[in-house]
Design a protein that fits this description.
The protein is an alpha/beta fold and 406 residues long. The chain folds into three domains: 218 residues, Rossmann fold; 79 residues, Tyrosyl-Transfer RNA Synthetase (Orthogonal Bundle), CATH 1.10.240.10; 70 residues, Structural Genomics Hypothetical 15.5 Kd Protein In mrcA-pckA Intergenic Region, Chain A (Roll). The protein has 18 helices and 13 strands. Strands 1-6-5-2-3-4 form a six-stranded mixed β-sheet, with helices on both faces. Helix 12 crosses helix 16. The longest helix has 17 residues. The structure holds one RNA strand of 87 nucleotides.
Amino acid sequence: MKIETPTEKQLNHLLDYNIASLYPSREFAVEALKGGKQISIYLGVDPSSSNIHLGNAVVLRKLREFQNLGHKIIFLIGDFTGLIGDPTDKTAVRKQLTPEEVKKNAKTYKEQISLLLDFDGDNPAEIKFNSKWLSKLNFEDLIGLAANFTVQQMLERDMFQERIKNEKPIYLHEFFYPLMQAYDCVEMNVDAEIGGTDQTFNMLVGRTLMKSVLDKEKLVFTCPLLVGSDGHKMSKSLNNTIDVFDTPSDMYGKLMAVKDELIIEYLRMCTDYGAEEIENFREQIEEGENPMEIKKVLAFTVTKFYHGENKAQTAEKEFERVVQKGDTPTEIAEVRIDETEMNIVDLLVRIGLANSKAEAKRLVNQDAVEIDGSRERETAALVKITNGMIVKAGKRKFARVIVDGK
RNA sequence: GCCGGGGUCGCGUAGCGGCAAUCGCUCCAGUCUGUAAAACUGGCGGCCGUAAGGCCUUCGUAGGUUCGAGUCCUACUCCCGGCACCA
């Protein structure tokens, strides 16, 4: 199928921006893409977590770029591979998902990636599930597949080397993961695959297989990995992800919590700002501009991308009010109480601002508790309960007390 | 099957038979600032007590020894490594 020939600029952006490496080579990719011929490119994702985060979004946005240029996008949900567990970058063996978990996670994916890929229009992205073909393979097929690779090739993988060194187990089934992923490519007969740099090995196994089975040179694009807001690997277990489904204020707040040193990296990987604009931001920070201001641009831009301008603005105003100025948020949880007077510690537990009395006391002793704006320092204090009273514990925990008159 | 290592606060760890129990991370709070960034300080099992303090519960499970057990013994259980068996 013919599509419009990309401009030099589009092509360069596509192949250089937020791309870590290209296989077999950049020249090969240029050749494949400049002719105005539609290629099919896919991204495979394990439904191991139900949330798509900004790290996943880097790759998805790159896919969108391909889509906008007229290329065919396939989003493959690894509902079958998820059952086995990708051994990638795990020192220990990954927990295998139950079919229920896989199903549940896969379900929410489409909604989330609709924010990033176009599922309508005349070139809609397509979703596929690899259980469709992988579950049909029999043992004979599997052996045939496995015969394309040597154990040495599999063991080449850094992570396996690491495990051998540390005397950690490598289970046989872990070799099947790249094999299955490779089979996905063959089955879909795609022209290209994209993924994070952590997927390089798996994607290259697919390249090898396509070459030997279909005599086809599959293009492989790897995207750099976005680090979490704290600078560590972005991972759900480290609790440092920013999810595309986060509420606007959460998203905005989490982005503001990104370390200063990561601002530029986040701008480059999570926004549509071009290289010159980002260079501009970098210079501004270097010249002494308050990084906070740039971070607000980042937070706003990203929040706007996922939630729209209005909600992003609301989130920004809320952040300025609550966090920067220390005011009360507009939305506060309400708690009904039918007492007229309560000990401060009991009150904190009752309205859910503390999990235990000991914790509540700690908060009071740490000067973290305010009632209607005045700080409460005595754990023995009795508090008169008044309707609409606002209790604050720490910077972010608020509750409004509603007197439940009987 | 045999040998060895291990299961302690969310995670990772320390712990001569004698203090809810080390350290790092996360986390929470305060100060400051420029934000929920950075830095600094403090906290981080529960209940009672204004407090000093008291009590209770916790180191895989169940027993035992002991004035006293995370620490010693026995059984069980789960995890990890090696060897053996096997082709």
